[in-house]
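Run folding on both entries below.
>entry_1
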Amino acid sequence: MRRLAQGKISEMLGDEAFPIDYLTRQIGLERIAKIAEKNISPDLIEDFDYVADGINEYVKTNVLPLEYYILGIDFEPFTHTDILLIEKLIDFITSYNHQMELTRDIVYNATNSTSFMDKYMPYKSSFFRHNNYPTVSDEELKKSGLYEKDGLRKLSQNSTSPYKSRINLSRKDIFEDVRETLNLVHFDGSNAWVIHGNHTKSGKPILSTDPHLSNTMPCLWFQAEIHYENVSQAGIFMMGPPWVMMGRTNNLAIGITAIHSDVIDLYQEELVEDGKYYIFDGKKIPVNKHREIIKVRDLFAPSGFRLEEIIVNSTHHGPLLHDPFNKSYDWLKRLPYDGFGRQDMALAWSGFQGKSAYFNNNKCLSHSKDVYEGVECFRNMGTQNLNFFLADTSGNIGFVPSVSYPIRKNPYASAFIQDGSKSENDWRGYVPFDDLPKVINPECGYITNSNSMLTSQNVRYGVGAMMPSPPRVIRSRELIDQQIKSGVKFTAEDMLRMQLDTVDVNAR
């Protein structure tokens, strides 16, 4: 994972892995990690150093795994920067909504029909406005002062036809690309719910969470129990930070789901003078260029390696992603990659702020006394894209999203590739923490989410509003409502039964 984030896979595996490193270097995760390093507290860096020292000490006193000998590579001691770097990789992996924009654009280019495109991959409020399964209800929005009747629609009422990019593909190419996309794109679902003690047999809240992630080797997650000073944690940890992601502390239970909110936009830039400049509001601006050297394993080179130089180009929107190999996106299984065979597509991502949220927030959670303190931990917004579910030993339950959500002049425009030459399409900052939908102790007695919409359309910014409610969330609410109505109190066994439920409400 560290080598993947560094762009050093081809140092192990040679030319076959070079396109992956090419992509990673363009995104610049290592640069972002170094920015984050400057913006976090010294005590957090000290914690990372302890983790890195522990890894390095273990390696000193144990035999390296067989893979090191097969690949002929040495172990590089871990540093706190490496741990931050892995965080940035996870941030990017959880922010992959840009494949939607490219796919919509390809369909629009193929059919010249917005109605067909709307049905193929819907995004407008007219499709979602009658969707009655938001995580935070209108009543809860009113309590928190975030309710605004048809707020998202009003913000987007000046919507025009989608910008049509200059993808130069034949109809046959487009058909193959879309078909390939449908075969490649796989959404790993997740679900979580938390039920108030008023409805449980124990009288205490019960939290159930399942990230639905596949087994991988190496695995990002591991189970552990850690005790130090006045902190006790047990559950699932992510490789690197010493704070539980899903599990419990002295006072809190913690669960997560992926938001899938739109934190990435693609901009088609107008490049001139052989790519030296780009046009922005009628002015020529120099394209930023920097040099990267990638070390590639090469059995025919005298040293066993060769050095490849690449030039990374970027605008103020972000890096100009260019994939001349048509392999890296295939490997990521996130995009119809043929659309990136050219060099004028910039990627804007909230992660380029360089903030660090995972570690600040999760360390804060490990010391929080109750849900109220836990929710406040997320005031330090970073580049996560996750929903957090909380319950405490005092009986409170809560929900809060952890996301830096871009403010756009027209939220619907983000559903497509945008014209990078006009400032009206640029982001206007990020939604303040106080304007993010969140809830503590809702009247219904439970909170649930399965990568589903966070609110109705009666909200200003639309954080997670332009999303469907998949069968999983409809079914979980159905099961919870049925049991509450029956008067039967919930137990841990009920949570297991619900997680293993196989009823598909759409099929039904």
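>entry_2
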Amino acid sequence: MQRRDLFVGVATLAASGMAGGAARAAAAVPARPRVSPSVFDFGAVGDGVSDDSAAFSAALRVAASEGRMVVVPGYEYAIAEPITWSSTDHVTRQWGLACQGATLRSKITTDREVMSLSCDHIVRYLVIGGGLTIKGNGAEGNGLRLFAPGGSHHFYNVSLQNIAIEGVGGDGLLFEGNVFESTVSSCFFQDCGQNGATFAHSQNGVVSAIDLIGCFFNQNGRFGMQCTNFDAKYGGTNDVRVFGGYCRENQKFGFVFHNGTAPGASIQQVGFENNYLSKEPGDRDGAHVYARVRLAMRDCAGYNEFGGATFLLRGQFTDLTVLDGCSQDSGGAMRATGNSRLVRVGGAHGHVLLRGCSGGVDVDAGTSCTWEARNSTGPCPLGNLDMRGSLGNV
């Protein structure tokens, strides 16, 4: 079977008996239209050498305009120019790429994205999934960028599934501007020159209501994942919800929330290991997670042997921060420093509450942020946490 034979043509014959035993002539039903074109229909070669970027750009244009899922068979596709798509009208039907274990190997030698999708309309229901790997060479920019400027331009209801982005020069994944109400699941972002993933307010647009489910952020040159604001120094995305996954061996913080997490948003059941490799073990500035304003974490665990993430969490808090069932442990060089703690408390007017946690508390000198621990264990400025409850900085 050739790779292009990805459509279904079905002819159905219907016959019925008639009174008196006369047979009615069979009637042929017209063949169904092709509903699943492949990238080969748009000129892709899939030999890992020929430039297939134009074929992918064309496939995305047709997918959006006709509401189709274009099949990407499991071959290696060389990408020498950015794959681009820009909206020309509203899109309200499911569209995208149905991948079958395909690899896009970047041959881009400038800092441009491997794949960039931009929206100047209302665009919904983009799906990229089924098994796709984007392999960078370190000279390109971001791996996959979705962008919509502020105002009436909205890019939402996006679903990214089973995507691995590795070794690109910029961020693995970038959601920028008005991108919201979307899900990223079972994806891997690792060995990227900058961040594994970034979710950023930009050009008066707001990134909001993003769910990360079972994703992994490893060995990136800066942060594993950040939520930020490209328009200003402070503020930014605060309702990226993280459920499960792992974050390890990033050069700086594992996760950064420049505006904290809003009520209803949290980090749950995520493991952190040996982050902030650019700092020595025991450094008080190092942590797996950094946040401003407020943060909620539940059932998360940090561990360090050779990285500089001395704390599971540190931040400058001005509101209520809650850690439920979280822990921080250490071994090797980190344990030898004796500095490992669950949380470093800092900021103004905030309050940090620990419930059922282990790993202890450290406090910035002169901070007006208070802390409280219930049913928790570990060292603290009072000596050790009392299982019945400990209260400090009041």
